[in-house]
Amino acid sequence: SKLKESQTVNTFPTNVRRLTNNKANLCRAIHFSFPESRGFHFHLPCFVLSEHEKLIRTYLSRSKDTYWLHKPEVGSGGKGISLLYLTDLTKLIDQKFPTSSDVYIQQYLHDTLLLPYFSRKRGASISVKFDARVYFAVTSLYPLRVWVHNKGFVRLATKEFSMENDAKYDLQRHIANLHYQTQFLEYEYPDPLGDACNSSCRTLKCVVDQISIRTGKESQH
């Protein structure tokens, strides 16, 4: 009742979010739904410690050059996330966890498309990681019908992306979450009278058009 016409709701209240946004439960559901592939064909490999300890050890024995994210099972705003290399993850797996705790682990997609970003505060052009907030409604499963709202937006990291040396542990380069990035001086708020494509948060259409130019694919595609 207190929302203005232009406002949107992105997060459920905490007590509800523990059910709807629980990453550990989502990971369990994916493993359960795809017992052979574990859902790795459409979702980045995820595991819940300690119940998936044997599975993750088997996976790591076949995949050496990987990075991993350690996330709280319920949370938002980029809080509580840490980036792990293989040796870091091995140490974590070797710990003994009480049965009441859920430790969510997900493989990190670091070989990804970057956006060119001219930072006015840095006075330089940098290549940054980004993510998209997309609003959609599924109105049919058979046949699958998904309506995508045109009001989505894209969030950019405010530091040059890199996996070299200590940069791989610098979360400012890796987490594009709006709540997380606004704490840094490099964050550039959208100018209501300026170009919507020059800030640290951009419209979905703007970025889709940018990606279209970079990849040579039609925006609609």
Enumerate the spans where pLDDT stays under 50 for 5 or more consecutive residues: none
**Can you count the helices?**
6
Question: How far do the termini sit from each other?
Answer: 38 Å
Structural class: alpha+beta
> Strand portion, in percent?
15-25%
Strands, total number: 11
General form = globular
Largest sheet: 4 strands, antiparallel
What is the CA-based Rg, rounded? 19 Å
**Major beta sheet, strand line-up:** 1-4-2-3
Helix percentage range: 10-25%
Mean pLDDT: 86
Output the helix-strand order: HHEHEEHEEEEEEEHEH
Tell me what the structure shows:
With 221 residues, the chain is α+β, with helices and mostly antiparallel strands. 24% of the residues lie in helices and 23% in strands. It has six helices and eleven strands. The strands form four sheets. The protein has a four-stranded antiparallel β-sheet, sandwiched between helices. Strands 7-10-11 form a three-stranded antiparallel β-sheet. The longest helix has 12 residues. The protein is globular. The relative contact order is 0.11.
